[in-house]
TrEMBL record:
The lineage of its organism: Bacteria, Bacillati, Actinomycetota, Actinomycetes, Kitasatosporales. This is Polysaccharide pyruvyl transferase family protein. GO terms for molecular function: transferase activity. It comes from Streptomyces pimonensis. Keywords: Transferase. PANTHER family: GLYCOGENIN SUBFAMILY MEMBER. It holds the Pfam family PS_pyruv_trans.
Length: 777
């Protein structure tokens, strides 16, 4: 069947802002000034930072004026996120004090270049004669002012050199102008122990840090031991450990020599670190270690890190490069996981069967085997494997999930195929995410009131779309794909498309009924990307084949267009998520006559590292302030879209003594979800559909933005003020003020929601007319 493409109404859009700009996520970097003489010290610093904080990997800005290529290569080998930045020596010629050939003086000048950095919100400077011995989490969580350790010998009103924690308000042209003016005036003191220009400008106005964050060597004179709580040891003075050291400091210098390691010894030490290892560091150090040693356990760790980041082929490659003994169950299981994620199913099955031999890995291996069987449509085999997993570990949640899926009897189709539309969607499990549970039905309502199997043939996006599935779809009137954030690489990875629908190009080309992509979203998080060309190729083919290609916000439109050739841009159009216009779609809908005097709070915890970065403690404390402030006005309850969402209630009670009633929306049916949101006065939500669903039933919202899609939606309805970043410094006060403002002007805000909704409904109606023409209805 030949399909006719109907052009979209929006042919050009401005490029979408960066994800970080939309989410407000704080960008953190370390910085040092490095020259050839102090290179050995800097290399030891990098090793110490990784070994003492194995879960931390931020950009490291290297300020330099003359580093050799070989030196740069050594630096890059010790950190995967090095940012090189040349300083301008001539810039300081006009300064009136100091010998420009003296390293200590030059460093005091050049480190001021850190204040010219504009790419980051927080910059932490470290001297090259430092080593990191302890946790730097407190420094990474700092959000205000300019912090440093006061000078130990020269008075508490001056800061000590070496460590600065600088926030964005100091990374400005205005502050740099003050530094320059002071430098040119000569109105400052400068010696080898302090940054005189900076001290002159600050005049004691800085945040005081504990001395353990810049513990100077001079305090250890007489071979005193380094205190156990020292976080950063600073080898001040002329004699550096790599230059022969200095009498009277042997214990301190022994500490430094613990980080003067060969690459092989350093890699081995990092991989043996306890606690969570950062993905980037694990891959950066683990890969050469595996290539050098063939270490199977290390290869497993590196592969698991690749899988966690969505780099499935890299995981296959690293584990395939080593010999895995038959009885090494865990590596077999991880390789099986990686292989199934790139759709090499038979190889994956062999690896996972090997993994079932070990009791501690068997349940997980059986669950993955059940998943693969389910993906291939074999419910009987899926149930057999899931049951085996439960027999090994009766508490194994994943095995129970696949047993539930495999044992579910599909709805009987009541109509004839010629009257039906096929519908590719993510059909959520019984206790799954409430928003995703509601989506398939709401998409169907956009095509008519009958959402049952009489009019619809369900195609689960995560099941392999094979020849039989293709035959079933081609027997229908058309194929609808949506809604939800199907363009995401890691929810249910496959190598056929690299997005949620498990369809190979051959089967996609074979579809000969109209394809209608409806309200799909580009759902990558800030810090998450689609690395595979496979996604781009599948996306391009899908756009070429589609008679209608509608994305649910203009941010997604910009992202997808950037991946397409120019001639396909106009095929991508705006189709709001149908949940945002539920009042117009649900048959017999009436707005509630009365609302409960409640505010519903939703927080999301999937991919928490990408959502919060270093700021979860800050977020929780600010939410506690807001709950207390709003609670004086209206009762606040926790609305949990999924089981994990209940964590906000647990954490608030444990950390701040606040108890919230929890509403388990994951147990609700679709009518109950809509009814709950329609009867409350305000929803404060972090999940996309904790904003779109209440908006769609006429309830005011405030979005807690930790994902770009939240900002995309608010931009589309021209109400960006209804969103606040989870990283906002004054989140608690702002959220309280906006929430109470909405509650005090509730009728007017509801009317505004209805008006905003009308703009989305007009787009939906116009698209519906095009869809009717496509279907010949």
């Amino acid at each position: 069947m030949t399909t006719t493409f109907l052009a979209g109404t929006t042919s050009s859009q401005a490029p979408a802002p960066s994800s970080a700009a939309l989410t407000g996520k704080r960008r953190v970097a370390f910085a040092s000034y490095v020259d050839e003489n102090y290179l050995p010290g800097f290399l030891a610093l990098l090793r110490s930072l990784a070994l003492s904080n194995p879960g931390v990997c931020e950009d490291f800005v290297v300020l330099h004026d003359d580093l050799r290529p070989g030196s740069i290569a050594k630096i890059r080998a010790l950190h995967p996120r090095i940012v090189l930045r040349r300083v301008n020596a001539e810039h300081y010629d006009s300064y009136k004090k100091g010998d420009q050939d003296n390293y200590l003086v030059r460093k005091a000048y050049f480190i001021l270049d850190v204040f010219r950095i504009r790419e980051y919100d927080t910059v932490i400077t470290l001297d090259t004669d430092m080593v990191v011995l302890g946790d730097l989490g407190e420094l990474l969580r700092l959000r205000e002012g300019l912090a440093a350790v006061p000078q130990f010998f020269y008075g508490q009103h001056k800061l000590n050199s070496g460590l600065l924690v600088i926030q964005r308000e100091y990374l400005t042209d205005a502050f740099c102008a003050k530094l320059d003016a002071t430098g040119r005036s000569g109105d400052y003191e400068l010696d080898k122990h302090d940054q005189g220009i900076l001290n002159a400008v600050l005049d004691g106005d800085f945040v005081r840090l504990d001395a353990r964050y810049n513990f100077v060597k001079r305090r250890l004179s007489g071979d005193l031991p380094v205190p156990d709580d020292t976080a950063i040891l600073h080898f001040t003075g002329r004699h550096k450990p790599w230059q022969g050291g200095e009498a009277g400091y042997s214990l301190a210098e022994e500490c430094w020599r613990g980080f003067d390691l060969s690459d092989a010894d350093f890699h081995a030490a990092y991989l043996a670190s306890s606690g969570g290892l950062h993905h980037d560091l694990l891959v950066h150090f683990g890969t050469p270690h595996v290539m050098r040693t063939g270490d199977v356990e290390c290869a497993r760790k590196v592969a698991a890190a690749h899988i966690a980041a969505g780099d499935y082929q890299d995981a296959v490659d690293i584990l395939s490069s080593v010999h895995i003994p038959l009885d090494a169950a865990w590596p077999h299981e991880v390789l099986g996981h990686a292989l199934m994620s790139v759709s090499r199913y038979e190889e994956a099955k062999a690896q996972l069967l090997l993994a079932t031999s070990a009791p501690n890995r068997a349940a997980t291996a059986y669950a993955r085997l059940a998943q693969m069987a389910w993906v291939h449509g074999d419910n009987a085999e899926a149930l057999r494997y899931a049951t085996a997993g439960i027999s090994v570990d009766p508490t194994h949640r994943s095995s129970r999930l696949w047993a539930q899926r495999a044992g579910t009897v599909p709805a009987q189709e009541q109509g004839s195929p010629g009257e039906q539309l096929a519908h590719v969607a993510f059909y959520m499990d019984r206790q799954g995410n409430a928003g995703d549970k509601l989506l398939p039905e709401t998409v169907r309502l956009a095509f008519g009131e009958d959402t049952t199997s009489r009019r619809w043939h369900s195609v689960h996006a995560h099941r392999l779309f094979d020849e039989k599935a293709l035959e079933r779809v081609n027997a229908r009137r058309g194929l609808v794909i949506g809604g939800g954030g199907l363009f995401i690489p890691d929810t249910m990875p496959n190598g056929n498309s690299a997005w949620q629908w498990n369809v190979a190009d051959e089967q996609l080309r074979g579809i000969d009924v109209p394809i209608m992509v409806y309200a799909v979203g580009f759902n990558a998080f800030d810090g998450q990307s689609y690395r595979a060309g496979r996604f781009r190729e599948s996306l391009r083919l899908l756009v070429e084949k589609s008679a209608f290609f509608g994305l649910r916000n203009h941010g997604s439109i910009a992202k997808v267009r950037a991946m397409l050739p120019d001639h396909l841009h106009d095929r991508v159009r705006f189709q709001p998520c149908p949940t945002t216009v539920s009042r117009q779609l649900v048959p017999g809908w009436t707005d509630p006559l009365h609302r409960e005097d409640t505010v519903l709070l939703n927080a999301a915890y999937d991919r928490a590292g990408l959502r919060f970065g270093h700021d979860y403690g800050h977020f929780l404390a600010e939410i506690a302030k807001a709950v207390r402030g709003i609670g004086e006005h209206t009762e606040v309850r926790c609305a949990a879209h999924s089981l994990d969402d209940e964590r906000i209630a647990f954490d608030l009670r444990r950390e701040h003594g606040i108890s919230l009633p929890v509403i388990p929306m994951y147990d609700f049916d679709n009518d109950a979800i809509r009814d709950l949101y329609a009867r409350t006065r305000l929803v404060i939500g972090m999940r996309g559909h904790a904003g779109m669903i209440p908006f769609g039933v006429g309830t005011p919202i405030i979005s807690l933005i930790s994902h770009p899609k939240m900002a995309y939606f608010l931009a589309d309805i021209e109400r960006p003020e209804w969103g606040i970043s989870v990283h906002e410094r004054n989140l608690g006060a702002m959220l309280t003020e906006r929430a109470i403002g909405i509650l005090d002007a509730h009728a007017a805000t509801v009317a505004d929601v209805h008006e905003r909704q009308q703009t989305l409904w007009k787009v939906t109606e116009a698209n519906a007319a095009d869809l009717r023409r496509i279907l010949g209805a």
